[in-house]
Design brief:
By secondary structure, the chain is α+β, with helices and mostly antiparallel strands. Among the domains are: 265 residues, Beta-galactosidase, Chain A, domain 5 (Distorted Sandwich), CATH 2.70.98; 105 residues, no CATH class. The protein is built from 17 helices and 22 strands. Strands 7, 8, 9, 10, 11, 13, 14, 16, 17 and 20 form a ten-stranded antiparallel β-sheet that branches. It has a six-stranded antiparallel β-sheet with strand order 6-5-12-19-18-15. Strands 1-2-3-4 form a four-stranded antiparallel β-sheet, with no helix packed on it.
């Protein structure tokens, strides 16, 4: 296409017109947006001025409306909202310090004197604004109020003859003709984590509908351990319904409906337990819970709406108990209400190890703890006792290993003879073992029998409250991981630290694997050959966040294993006698067990099938 001068000039003028159009259009739009912004700014300033003038009136009207609503809601209990100054009353015994509030006539917070929190102060339970305990009462025609929001009159604690202390909160109706009143009494006994709580209602036939006390218990379990994720994994809701105990881990469900009588319900957060007991049972109800974000430093928030059926009478009493204390098996068991079942000595699919913990590990640990006082040494002594207890199994395993070692030359000869024919090799190896009187599973069976001990100790060290805060060597808390090595950044699967007890446990595990492999025949299967060396590496990641008490146990256990291996192999087992015994067994007539017959039949069948496949290929 050919352009003359006029065409070029035309394109230039057209382009100039387009640029000019867009320039002026954008300028006008910018001016318009600027004007609109200034207009909105002026209008906002005017509206803000109007709101500023009207705000006192609006606030005043709002306060008046709120006051009218509150007065209407509380009905004849108007005195409960006249003075809304919160008054606190403190009482204590050797174990707990309880702060009560006149708002709701309830517990404000509980401090455990024998346990320290993350801030090095005493552990506090039920200390958040979320924590409440109250019930609905009728205050007038079609009006109700919750006692948790009403202000009671508080009396000073009274010391009783038995050393206990009682504090009472009263709420009196302002209507002299109504004759209704409420009294909340709390009793704290010496050396006890349990509070007695009774609600005495005068005019209960007016305060409650058909004797139904609809009680609401809100409880927030604050973070108490350094590893919040691990604490959440070990937090559960428990209860006794219709005489039977049950529990739920908080992460697996979020509510529980009760259609039968409930004796108690509570929240256990690994080492601490809060329980609400209805002495005459809850008739039914529902409990719900949520898991807040880690940033709130709260493990779980639970709300229980429970019904207590009281007599339809003028004066009634609703008796309760509340436990605020450690999740200690011995302390909980003395109440004889199945509280101790929520202590994880073996639950769910691992419930089979609970008797092992209850009747063997826990009593022995308690004995050594009382004997030496130091938890780390007590764990070492417990480890030594357990290893001595299972030493017959250990000896049987090492004896089987020694027999296998004696057959090494013959096994090697079979490998040379049959080469890659694994089927034939397996059959001939089985014959060799039978002739020599050697059980190839002899070393595995004792190890399998030790698995319950592993699961029992795993549960025990995760739940034993006496380990909390116990120092040993470089570990500041045997109930948590030790972290002398900090990375300053997060490594997937490992975390942001490296446990030193974890390292010692893994190194000693590797030494056991190396020694054991040197005592067994060479493995042709590479997986079986290298698995014993891979396993300690796997433990490095698995054990890194476990309690240091547990990794210290495995370190000691591995050291004992190495010592036993050396002593048994070099000073107890006579290898010449083993060889002589094998030769003697070869001369004896052999009888096959049914299991051996079935195995050989399967091997023969597989061999024939393989031969047929090879024949068909030819």
């Amino acid at each position: 296409m050919k352009f003359d001068r006029n065409t070029v000039i035309g394109f230039v003028i057209l382009a100039g017109l387009f640029f000019g159009y867009f320039y002026f259009t954008n300028k006008q739009q910018s001016e318009y947006r600027k004007q609109q912004a200034e207009k909105q700014k002026r209008e906002k300033a005017i509206q803000d001025s109007i709101n500023l003038v009207n705000k006192p009136k609006q606030d005043s009207l709002s306060r008046i409306a709120d006051s009218v609503a509150k007065i209407t809601k509380v009905g004849s209990f108007q005195a409960a909202i006249k003075d809304t100054t919160e008054k606190l009353v403190v009482t204590e015994n050797e174990l707990i310090k309880v702060t009560f509030t006149n708002k709701g006539g309830q517990v404000k917070k509980v401090e455990l004197k024998k346990f320290k929190g993350l801030d090095s102060n005493e552990v506090k339970l039920a200390a958040s604004s979320f924590d409440k305990l109250g019930y609905a009462i009728n205050t007038g025609n079609n009006t109700t109020a919750n006692t948790a929001e009403l202000y009671f009159n508080a009396a000073e604690p009274v010391k009783n003859a038995d050393g206990s202390q009682t504090i009472a909160f009263t709420l009196q109706s302002s209507d002299s003709t109504a004759s209704t009143a409420i009294t909340h009494k709390f009793t704290i006994r010496p050396n006890d984590y349990m509070l007695d709580f009774t609600a005495d209602l005068t005019g209960a036939d007016k305060l409650l509908t058909q004797g139904n006390m609809n009680l609401t218990w809100q409880y927030a379990a604050a973070q108490q351990e350094s590893d919040i994720d691990f604490e959440k994994q070990n937090t559960q809701v428990g209860y006794v319904k219709d005489g039977s105990f049950d529990y739920h881990t908080i992460g697996r469900r979020s509510d529980k409906n009760f259609d039968k009588e409930v004796k108690w319900l509570g929240v256990r957060q690994r080492f601490f337990f809060t329980i609400l007991v209805a002495k005459n049972n809850f008739s039914n109800g529902k409990m719900e819970w949520t898991i807040p974000a880690d940033s709130t430093k709260t493990i779980v928030q639970s709300t229980a709406n429970m019904k207590v059926q009281l007599p339809v009478a003028t004066t009634v009493t609703a008796p309760f108990s509340i436990y605020y204390g450690p999740s200690d098996y011995h302390i909980l068991k003395k109440y004889d209400m199945k509280f101790e079942k929520l202590v994880n000595l073996g639950q769910g699919m691992y419930a089979f190890v609970r008797p092992l913990n209850r009747f063997i590990i826990l009593p022995i640990y308690d004995f050594f703890r009382g004997l030496v006082g130091n938890m780390g040494i007590a764990i070492a002594l417990l480890t030594l006792f357990i290893r001595l207890l299972i030493s017959p199994l250990t000896y049987s395993s090492y004896l089987s290993g020694a027999k296998m070692k004696a057959l090494r030359p013959e096994i090697a000869a079979l490998k040379d003879k049959y080469g890659e024919d694994r089927q034939a090799m397996s059959m001939e190896q089985m014959k060799l073992f039978r002739e020599a009187g050697v059980n190839p599973l002899g070393g595995c069976i004792p190890a399998l029998l030790q698995i319950p001990i592993f699961f029992a100790l795993f549960s025990f060290f995760n739940s034993e409250v006496s380990l909390r805060g116990a120092e040993f060597l470089w570990a500041s808390d045997l109930a948590a991981f030790d972290d002398p090595i900090k990375f300053g950044f997060h490594i997937p699967l490992l975390g942001s630290h490296l446990s030193l007890f974890n390292i010692t446990a893994c190194i000693t595990s590797f030494m056991i694997s190396w020694y054991s492999m040197s005592m067994t025949p060479d493995q042709s299967n590479p997986v079986l050959k290298y698995m014993p060396y891979i396993f300690p590496v796997f433990l490095l990641f698995f054990f890194n966040r476990l309690p240091s008490g547990l990794t210290w146990y495995y370190t000691v256990s591995n050291l004992i294993t190495l010592a036993l291996q050396f002593i048994i192999q070099n000073y107890i087992i006579d290898h010449n006698k083993i060889l002589a015994k094998i030769e003697e067994n070869r001369k004896k007539p052999k009888t096959k067990s049914k299991w051996q017959e079935r195995v050989e039949q399967m091997q023969e069948q597989q061999k024939r099938m393989k031969e047929m496949q090879q024949k068909n290929k030819r």
